[in-house]
Design brief:
7-stranded mixed sheet, globular
């Protein structure tokens, strides 16, 4: 068994919600996304107040993913441009504690997460996955599913330290030796 440090990404290492920032990036570029904004605001509020189950999260995102995401085409250039603009939102404290063995476990979709992980030289990471053809989640790395995904992909890893901004990650907290709550740049040990 290998001891590792595990990090949530949004509002923990990254100062913001990646998906929200990515949608805002598109709001300026494509008016077709505007019709989804009211529903996406409701989703963001429910997420902020922990009012989702995994199934409800899947259902909430379904119309946006199936109606808009599948028609976006190749996003690779947009993702690079997005991170060119937003990489500055990586919190500086992370570089001070970073280890080669770190694992990032995030609800952020992997097609967005992969680029910033490459730039940060983080080799071990997992995010949510979406089938580009159907717009359906093939993996939702959220709530208790984070533990399931972590255990499947890293069966020989033991979480020594877990960093998060949210009590949504309570299932991950329960399997970690030590837990740190991140608010802005303030880090507080809570377990």
């Amino acid at each position: 068994m290998v001891n590792v440090n595990v990090y949530d990404f949004d509002n923990t290492i990254y100062n913001g919600e990646t998906l929200v920032d990515f949608i805002l990036y598109y709001v300026k570029r494509d008016v077709k996304i505007w019709k989804y904004i009211p529903k996406l605001i409701v989703i963001a509020i429910k997420d902020a107040f922990h009012l989702f189950t995994v199934q409800e999260a899947i259902e909430a995102y379904a119309s946006f993913l199936e109606g808009y995401y599948v028609n976006m085409g190749d996003l690779s250039e947009s993702v690079v441009d997005f991170w060119n603009r937003n990489e500055k939102k990586i919190k500086p404290w992370y570089e001070e504690v970073r280890k080669e063995s770190d694992i990032v476990v995030s609800g952020t979709t992997d097609f967005i997460l992969d680029e910033i992980m490459k730039r940060m030289n983080i080799k071990n990471h997992v995010g949510s996955s979406i089938d580009k053809n159907t717009g359906k989640f093939t993996r939702l790395c959220f709530l208790e599913n984070k533990v399931k995904v972590f255990n499947e992909l890293y069966p020989n890893a033991h979480i020594e330290n877990f960093y998060t901004d949210s009590m949504n990650d309570k299932p991950m907290m329960e399997i970690a030796d030590h837990v740190y709550l991140v608010k802005g740049d303030k880090i507080t040990k809570i377990k």
